[in-house]
Hints:
Blueprint: H1 28-36, E1 46-48, H2 53-66, H3 73-80, E2 85-96, E3 99-114, E4 132-141, H4 150-164, E5 168-173, H5 180-188
Amino acid sequence: MQNNSNAIHRLSHSFPPDYEHNCKYLANVHHILGNTKLNIDSKRIYYRPIKNAIEMKEVRLLHKEWFPPDYPDAFFNAVLNHNTYRSILALYDTSYKNKKATIILGCLLYELKELEFDYVRHSIVDWFQDRMSLYILTFGVINEARNKGVGRGLLEKLIQIAHQNSNVACIYLDVVAYNDQGIKCYEKN
């Protein structure tokens, strides 16, 4: 993207470059980070699935910041209930207003699905086995935690999950061509 003084500032590069409405933080994590002046120690980041409706509410707000589609309630309910979709959160414990606070630094939502042979090279053996794939539905890291290993950590956790399931042949995703930051992250990792 060219450096243009008239260019629109986007919070997320998943939005089109000329999209004017992606300029306001919505999630609580930004308020906490803005008021604590927290220096994130990458060694204290930990990963786990979404556990409750409070975390899901924060993930919904982050998705509004990160992605153009307006995901329906059914999508987030399926994530929370571990029905169709699964989650990995990158979390960090801090204190805010003299209380312990756990903040979400990043989130990866994925689906375990049948292997689509259009996406991978396969052998004749694959036709006779129930081969699966992990499809990354959404993947985002808050701007304040970029370049601190959060994205890499989320992807490493997903790779661990793939290795634990011997039927998983691949992990794949889709990304829009103008999401230069996302593409760099995927190529790097």
